[in-house]
């Protein structure tokens, strides 16, 4: 944002001078600017959720879908840090230095794992335009060597346009005992799993408190929230109530599931009429590694199916 010039008058006598607060007043968002909540799940297939035809019941998301728009042509880089960097900046993942996940940074252009200053984040853009900005949950855009108390904070959320942060900086964490960061410092979880703690709930509670704090001091200011839960990612720590709720619902296996969900996705218009399932391993054996192939469900033993 361009710097505002002082338009007041400075004379030898203050009584003859005129102040101008313009250059020193924080920016104000346009009247009627909306609050924006961006929820990002990772390691979640499009065909898993009920609004897209899947078995996982998501009534709140369904209500949002019924009252809004659903998009089905978002393409990821198939990796975490690169995709997140493109969503944050609107730039190609090589321009953001995230050709791979931060743990795979290798010191080459486009693959150094640090979002450069010339790639402004949505947080920086909206912060400069008068929004409050909050980031909760997973980060995975901080280099490994910077995830330490004595490390640089240049790639941490508060240096990338976010007023507040609460979550974990790496790609995954224990959802019962997470590696938590609040703003620019490491912190402890507020209570134990025995007392009902799970990171997903903690993130939701903290998100509400961030908004309440902001509204208490500046109720007319809009906010942007980047909310990134991590429970769908390894180590897959699900609350028992959800384990119980879906017990047995996926026991037929992944081949049966895709046969079941295909017509439902076609019916919802997510994929075109006449779409056929690809082979379970669509790549020719000459260019694929046997270790990368998906094994047919009926070749798995009982323990493998349970896993």
CATH superfamily: Alkaline Phosphatase, subunit A
Return the CATH topology: Alkaline Phosphatase, subunit A
Shape descriptor reads elongated
Oligomer: single chain
Q: What is the name of the CATH class? A: Alpha Beta
What's the gyration radius in Å? 24 Å
SSE ordering: EHHHEEEEHEHHH
- The residue fraction in helices comes out at 10-25%
- Named at the architecture level, the CATH assignment is 3-Layer(aba) Sandwich
Total separate domains: 1
Distance between the termini: 52 Å
Q: Class by helix and strand content? A: alpha/beta
Number of β-strand runs: 6
Feature tags:
single chain; 307 residues; alpha/beta; Alkaline Phosphatase, subunit A; elongated
Report what the structure shows.
- This protein is α/β, with parallel strands linked by helices and 307 residues long.
- The chain has a single domain, classed as Alkaline Phosphatase, subunit A (3-Layer(aba) Sandwich), CATH 3.40.720.10.
- It contains seven helices and six strands; from the N terminus they run E-H-H-H-E-E-E-E-H-E-H-H-H.
- The protein has a six-stranded mixed β-sheet with strand order 1-6-2-3-4-5, sandwiched between helices.
- The longest helix has 19 residues, at 199-217.
- It starts with 35 loop residues before the first strand and ends with a helix.
- The relative contact order is 0.12.
């Amino acid at each position: 944002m361009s710097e505002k010039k002082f338009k007041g008058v400075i004379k030898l006598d203050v009584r003859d001078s005129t102040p101008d607060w313009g250059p020193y007043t924080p920016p104000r968002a346009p009247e009627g600017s909306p609050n924006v909540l961006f929820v990002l799940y990772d390691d979640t297939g499009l065909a898993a959720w009920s609004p897209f035809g899947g078995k996982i019941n998501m009534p709140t998301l369904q209500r949002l879908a019924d009252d809004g728009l659903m998009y089905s042509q978002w393409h990821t880089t198939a990796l975490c840090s690169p995709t997140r960097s493109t969503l944050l900046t609107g730039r190609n993942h090589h321009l953001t230095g995230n050709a791979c996940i931060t743990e795979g940074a290798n010191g080459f252009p486009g693959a150094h794992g640090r979002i450069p200053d010339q790639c402004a984040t949505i947080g920086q853009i909206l912060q400069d335009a008068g929004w409050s900005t909050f980031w909760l949950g997973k980060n995975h855009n901080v280099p490994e060597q910077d995830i330490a108390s004595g490390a640089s904070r240049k790639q941490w959320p508060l240096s990338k346009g976010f007023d507040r942060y609460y979550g974990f900086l790496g790609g995954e964490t224990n959802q019962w005992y997470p590696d938590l960061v609040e703003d620019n410092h490491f912190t402890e979880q507020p209570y134990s799993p025995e007392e009902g703690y799970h990171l997903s709930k903690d993130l939701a509670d903290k998100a509400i408190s961030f908004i309440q704090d902001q509204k208490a001091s500046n109720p007319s200011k809009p906010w942007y929230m980047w909310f990134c839960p991590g429970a769908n990612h390894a180590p897959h720590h699900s609350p028992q109530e959800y384990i119980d709720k879906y017990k047995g619902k996926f026991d037929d296996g992944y081949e049966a599931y895709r046969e079941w969900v295909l017509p439902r996705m076609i019916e919802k218009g997510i994929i075109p009429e006449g779409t056929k399932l690809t082979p379970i391993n669509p790549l020719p054996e000459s260019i694929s590694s046997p270790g990368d192939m998906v094994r047919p469900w009926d070749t798995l033993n009982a323990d493998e199916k349970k896993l």
